[in-house]
Amino acid sequence: MVQIVTRFSLFGFMALSLSMIQSSSSKEVSNTSQTISFYLEIRKETHNKLKKVDLNHLDEHEKHIKADSTWYFSFHGWGGSVKDSPILPNMVKALQKSRDCNIVHVDWSYLAKPWYGIAIENIKIVAEYVGDAINKVSKGGKIGEMRIHLVGFSLGAQVVGFLGKYMQAKYNMKPSRITALDPAGPGFNHVEPYERLDSQDAHYVQVIHTSGKSLGIWEPIGHVDLYLNGGKAPQPGCKGNKANVFSGATCSHQMSKKLFAQSMQNIDTGIKCTSWKEFEAGECYGSQTRQTCLLGLEDPKCPEGIYNVTMLLATEVNNNNI
């Protein structure tokens, strides 16, 4: 009996929390500015430092802002915090070494817990607050819509979708790019585009799938959808066990961040499939006549479509924040 509880604890918890969505959840947020924080990456000679900033008063941090540069806004997932940002430390270093940029980690941890269903309800609160803040930065001349790159993991990937929708509807601003790392599936599978991340939420939306049909969404929803090692669990380096059959899914979900970071150093290429049917049949594989697409931030905007990416990472992930 204990084994059954353990095996189904993850999805059972998510299903239960989905059923507990309450209209009162938003009432608990008395001051959004106190529940959502922004952390700017400050580059030092020997190390990086995270500095909590107020986007409404960026003049105080002028010396740390790179003018006329891309702004990366990074969003963690359900149960996470700023330390779980999908732009990992090694990726921050690679980005800062290769280009002038501003990297902002968005901490919405207070609204990302405890129940998954309530966290879903809070997504729009986060999207609107961040959208308003970005608009103010834009009015100050420090950022333009074509220099906005949103990066989200799991439920954070759904947040950036609603952020893109909100910015377009209220400010007529459309983010340049969205990189969605294994967008959350539960609560978002088989729903209309306006209820989840969609290709219209930015000028270019790249979606990376690593745990489809379990924790991550399975169907293609971006301009470009890259299915890493088949797009499902278990990913290389992830193992389940009899006591917890979903540990492989959790690890594979988290692996999207590792593989995304790896793409800054390794050239990982996806092979374009002729159709969704071909991909699901397992018949999409290498050919000199097929179009290809680079995984990650170096992708120069690939032709729209579904891509099968074969890559390896023999590193176990031990992080349960999804």
UniProtKB/TrEMBL annotation:
GO CC terms of this entry: extracellular space
InterPro entries tied to this protein: Lipase (IPR013818), TAG_lipase (IPR000734)
A GO BP annotation: lipid catabolic process
A GO molecular function held by the record: lipase activity
UniProt keyword Cytoplasm, yes or no: no
First and last residue of the signal peptide: 1-26
All residue ranges annotated as the Lipase domain in the record: 29-316
Pfam family, one: Lipase
UniProt keyword annotations, A-Z: Signal
Family named by the database record: Belongs to the AB hydrolase superfamily. Lipase family.
Name by which UniProt lists this protein: Lipase domain-containing protein
UniProt organism field: Allacma fusca
